[in-house]
Amino acid sequence: MNEIRRLYDRIVLAPARTALTWLVMHWHRWRTRHQTRARTSHYRTRAHSP
């Protein structure tokens, strides 16, 4: 039974975990970049206000 479970994990679950990890990292990078752009834009707008 352990051998079947190990094969199932490698064939079915591992690619799903890899895809989920990629998605989480992609989201983290996108959010970090977005927050940086938003902060920069906010400070730029406030600096030019009368």
Short key terms for the protein model shown above:
single chain, 50 residues, mainly alpha, 0% strand
What does this 3D model show about the protein?
By secondary structure, the protein is an all-alpha fold. The chain contains one helix and no strands. The radius of gyration is 21 Å and the shape is rod-shaped. It starts with a helix and ends with a helix. The mean pLDDT is 91.
Give a short overview:
By secondary structure, this protein is an all-alpha fold. It is built from 1 helix and no strands. The longest helix has 46 residues, at 2-47.
Q: If you compute it from the alpha carbons, what radius of gyration comes out, rounded to the nearest whole angstrom?
A: 21 Å
The helix content, as a percent range, equals: over 70%
Query: Would you list the SSEs in sequence order as H and E?
Result: H
Structural class: mainly alpha
Largest sheet: none
Q: Beta fraction of the residues? A: under 5%
Enumerate how many helices there are, as a single number: 1
- Cα shape: rod-shaped
User: What is the number of beta strands?
Assistant: 0
Average the pLDDT over all residues and give the rounded result.
91
Q: Tell me the span between the first and last alpha carbons.
A: 73 Å
Query: Low-confidence parts, pLDDT < 50 over ≥5 residues?
Result: none
